[in-house]
Specification:
heterodimer, A: mainly alpha, 72% helix, B: mainly alpha
């Protein structure tokens, strides 16, 4: 197990290295530079800015500078390896580290609350539907689930604003900072996930409760609740854990959509404007940051299997 | 291996009874077809998709106006019935008129017509995403799974790396790259010019001049194939050890023949299901891209750009965001119903899973 984890963590290094190269190449392949304006700046100023930020260097040098593998134009190692995401060309008073510190917690809060809604609503609904299979409980739950799976958050967002903010006036239309402003975006984001989880939980629950060891557990006189929670649910959760990895990824970028609709100051807006502004360090930083989250999330999911199902062993 | 894969394997392992030949296979598909027809939701989904396809193809006939045709005198105009059902008193601040069935947008363009032409964006995106996923994913997965060993190892590591990309961010980057590098006017003779010309041809074919559809197909296609590649590989890994494949080897069949004639028919079921259930993802990806302004170019009507425009005016003119949203939701429902139905029909053991 320990060796497996070490191997997986080591494997992350080439993966992230590759992602950084592709992202760097793509970001720089977009024609134009960060200091192009509709009303052009004087050539000397652009040249000075380019020299200051090292944008006059050859591309490979810019990359190694960014990674912190070579000395940057100021003569110091200040890159990713040193924990520095670099300067932002558009908001020059702040480094990318500052931007992340200010806006990542917003996106993360939204994402994690939605994930909590997804799991917190999805699992119980799925279990209820499975235990009461082919009753009205089952039909109602699965009806809601197919609605949740089908309606994308880009539709749910405006719909929620229309119904709960403008018509009923229960929640503020948009914004960030107060708890009631979190409700609509988090539900708009989490409903889809909870629907997927509910459907999966129901299906795997139905499969598990027909297994022999469930009958054994009942036969030895365990209470129904103990059978379900300790024996059935734990195993039924394995397929659910499988989708949690990709789901986490979807939530990360899903926040981008919802942030736009609800005017939430998260990372999403920054990323999109940074591409059009050729703000390379912001682009690189965001992609790499999210890639790190992603590989870690996938590793955690794989480790969860071993915990949930003792038959699964890694070597 | 997930429960799903295991279950799928069990089925695939049991389904093709060796020696019974073509007749039995045909019956399997026929059985599935009958099961599909008995599923009312799936039939409804299929019919709706068919209707959408027809609406898209005959948009010129069905739509009352052209999508770019607008009269700014009529901007934000709403018909009476819309004003009646929407919250607030719309009549107090906007013109009421029954010229446009669902109202007009901020440039006075007919909402209904733009929604109808929007089908020409969403459905091709869904189908092209499915096609690229099918072709690239299947070929990739087949090669990887069938040849195994080192080839398999390298090919699957590449997929692993692709999986570590935050997909949406990669697509956004790609779109920015495609649009600025290949869009607009390009010098003849360059690669960019070739892409540009193909793009124009695609737009012309879809009847959406200047839409930039090829770039969306490309952006979505780049990230669409990995899931199918993994699925196909997993299926082939379990199939290639089966006796009927061994038998084909014995009588001297070539690799290509074995893959195409003996393996593919056995794995098409799960793959078809996975692809159908992925189509909504491709469609929402395009909607999101257009929503943030990196999708189709205006004035091409994408539901995403309509939702984006509409949500800016959501307080005053909720109809402008509501109707494109409904169109999108109906499309999603149709594909999900059909996909669910297909899965239940092709693989009855998987009934109810996601």
């Amino acid at each position: 197990m320990g060796r497996y984890i070490v191997r997986r963590v080591l494997w992350m290094i080439p993966v992230l290295f590759f992602i950084s190269i592709v992202t760097f190449a793509l970001a720089h392949a977009v024609p134009g530079g960060p200091f192009d304006r509709e009303k052009p700046l004087p050539a000397e100023i652009v040249a000075n800015l380019n020299r200051y930020y090292g944008l006059d260097q050859p591309l490979w040098k810019q990359y190694t500078d960014y990674m912190g593998m070579t000395r940057n134009p100021s003569g110091v190692y200040a890159g990713l390896l040193q924990g520095k995401f670099g300067p932002s060309y558009t908001t020059r008073s702040r480094t990318v580290n500052d931007i992340f510190a200010a806006h990542l917690p917003v996106s993360a809060t939204l994402g994690l609350v939605s994930l909590a809604i997804g799991v917190g609503m999805g699992v119980p609904l799925g279990v209820i539907a499975a235990l009461k299979q082919n009753t009205k409980w089952d039909y109602v739950t699965m009806g809601i689930a197919i609605f949740g799976v089908s309606v994308p958050n880009i539709v749910l967002g405006p719909l929620f604003i229309l119904i709960f903010a403008l018509t009923l006036g229960w929640f503020p239309v948009a914004g960030w900072g107060r708890p009631e402003q979190l409700v609509m975006p988090a539900v708009a984001l989490g409903l889809h996930e909870s629907a997927i989880i509910a459907r999966l939980t129901r299906a795997s629950m139905l499969q598990v409760i027909r297994e022999d060891y469930i009958r054994t557990a009942r036969a030895k006189g365990l209470k129904e609740r103990a059978v379900m929670v300790r024996h059935a649910l734990k195993n039924a959760f394995i397929p659910v854990a499988t989708v949690l990895g990709p789901m986490f990824a979807a939530l990360l970028t899903g926040t981008f959509v919802v942030e736009q609709i609800f005017a939430i100051p998260g990372l999403g807006k920054y990323f999109i404007t940074s591409i059009t502004n050729r703000d390379y360090p912001v682009v690189m930083g965001t992609v790499l940051l999210y890639a790190v989250f992603l590989v870690i999330a996938n590793l955690m999911v794989d480790l969860t299997y071993a915990f949930l199902d003792p038959r699964i062993k890694y070597s | 291996m997930s429960e799903q894969e295991r279950a799928a394997q069990r089925l695939v392992g049991a389904a093709p009874a060796e020696g019974e030949g073509q007749q039995r296979v045909a019956n399997l598909w026929l059985d599935a077809w009958h099961r599909l027809l008995r599923n009312r939701a799936a039939v409804l989904g299929g019919v709706l998709i068919l209707v959408l396809v027809l609406v898209g193809v005959f948009a010129d006939v069905v739509a009352p106006y052209h999508y770019s045709e607008g009269d700014s005198v009529h901007n934000h105009m709403v018909p009476q019935w819309v004003a009646d059902i929407m919250p607030g008193d719309m009549a107090a601040y906007t013109q009421i008129g029954d010229i446009y069935p669902l109202g007009a947008d901020y440039l006075g363009r007919d909402l209904l017509s733009r929604i109808i032409y929007g089908v020409r964006v969403s459905l091709p995106v869904g189908f092209m995403g499915a096609m690229t996923a099918l072709v690239i994913g299947l070929v990739y997965g087949c090669i990887s799974g069938y040849y195994g060993g080192k080839v398999d190892n390298i090919m699957m590591r590449i997929v692993d790396i692709m999986y570590a990309f935050p997909t949406m961010l990669l697509i956004i980057l790609l779109m920015a790259f495609f649009k600025t590098s290949f869009g607009g006017n390009q010098e003849p003779g360059t690669a960019a010019y070739t892409f540009n010309q193909i793009n124009r041809a695609v737009d012309g074919l879809l009847g959406l001049q200047g839409g930039g559809m090829l770039f969306i197909f490309m952006g979505i296609g780049v990230t669409a194939w990995m899931g199918i590649a993994r699925l196909a590989r997993g299926q082939i890994l379990s199939l290639k050890e089966k006796e009927f494949v061994e038998a084909s080897h014995m009588i001297g069949a070539r690799d290509l023949r074995i893959i195409v004639r003996h393996i593919l028919p056995n794995i098409m079921g799960p793959i078809l299901v996975a692809i159908t259930l992925n189509i909504p993802t491709y469609i929402t990806t395009e909607v999101f891209l257009s929503f943030i302004g990196l999708g189709v170019d205006p004035p091409t009507p994408s539901w995403g750009s309509m939702i984006s425009d509409g949500s800016r005016a959501i307080r005053s003119y909720p109809n402008q965001v509501l109707f494109p949203s409904i169109a999108l939701a109906i499309t999603m429902f149709s594909f999900n119903f059909l996909g669910d139905g297909l899965r239940d029909a092709l693989d009855p053991r998987m009934k109810g899973t996601s």
